[in-house]
Amino acid sequence: MPLSDIQDRVAAACTRAGRAPQDVTLIAVSKVQPDARVAAVLDQGHRVFGENKVQEAAGKWPRFRETYDGIALHLIGPLQTNKARAAMELAQAIHTLDRPKLANTIARLAQDMGACPDLFIQVNTGEEEQKAGVLPADVDAFVAEARALDLPVVGLMCIPPVDEEPSLHFALLAKMAARNGLTGLSMGMSADFESAIALGATHIRVGSAIFGDRVAG
Ligand SMILES: *Cc1c(COP(=O)(O)O)cnc(C)c1O
User: Fold this and answer.
1) Residue 26 CB–ligand 1 contact under 6 Å
2) Count of CB atoms situated within 10 Å of the CB of 115
3) Which residues pair with 74 in a beta bridge?
4) How far, in Å, CA of 192 to CA of 74, rounded?
């Protein structure tokens, strides 16, 4: 689907929700996509992209940055502590702060580097065993812990279970953010970004709806 169609759908969802379109950031998730598709979206003027692997992002975005100004990169995949520095050098936001060890590492590196990307805390709203993220019961304490480390926590992020109604998870995430005084909500993907916007998403992560299916190999 052309980028402009997605932008139109975002704007329409904002209008229905009584929200300003500029309050919702469309993150174009470019993981695994061929360079030509990414360049086409850059050529249409879009500048906010999401990647889920540091290594893949590091191999791709420094090249694009030589040609295009003002690119903002959001890291939306699980982050190992030994890749934290590379992630912080590359990305303007990290959506997957999910454990104390990573918080401590990022805090130490931020001191060292004198800068830190915006951070979202990933919440495992479905309490799924295989999924990363802080459990809902631990969110308040972890937000406090991250703030005590002076980390720039801007919001919460979730990936709802595939077989459940996403709205329930979006509403839960919004509630947890509000009670912690956090305004950022990273939620909503290709299949459900409109309902995420209705429930307050500030950052939607849309891949296949913009770029087409992620082709393997
Ligand atoms: C891949 C990915 C997306 C985008 O998924 P689509 O269904 O292609 O829009 C969003 N968020 C995360 C964390 C992802 O890994």
Assistant:
1) no
2) 10
3) 50, 93
4) 19
* Distance from the alpha carbon of residue 112 to the mean position of ligand 1, in angstroms: 31
**Segment-wise mean pLDDT, segments of 10 residues, the chain, 217 residues:** 94 98 97 96 98 97 97 98 98 98 98 98 98 98 98 98 97 98 98 98 97 75
Using most ligand atoms within 8 A of CB, pick from 94, 169, 189 the residue to mutate for ligand 1. Answer: 189
Asked whether 86 and 58 are in contact (CB, 8 A), the reply is: yes
- Predicted model pTM: 0.97
Element (H, E) at 122: strand 118-122
Q: Atom 13, ligand 1: which residue's CA is nearest?
A: 76
Residue 154: its pLDDT value, please? 98
Instruction: Point out the ligand 1 atom lying closest to the alpha carbon of residue 52.
Output: 15
Question: Token pair of 139, please?
Answer: 């969110």
CATH architecture of 3-211: Alpha-Beta Barrel (3.20)
pLDDT at position 156 is: 99
Would you kindly state where each structural domain of the chain is located, as residue ranges? 3-211
pLDDT at 136: 98
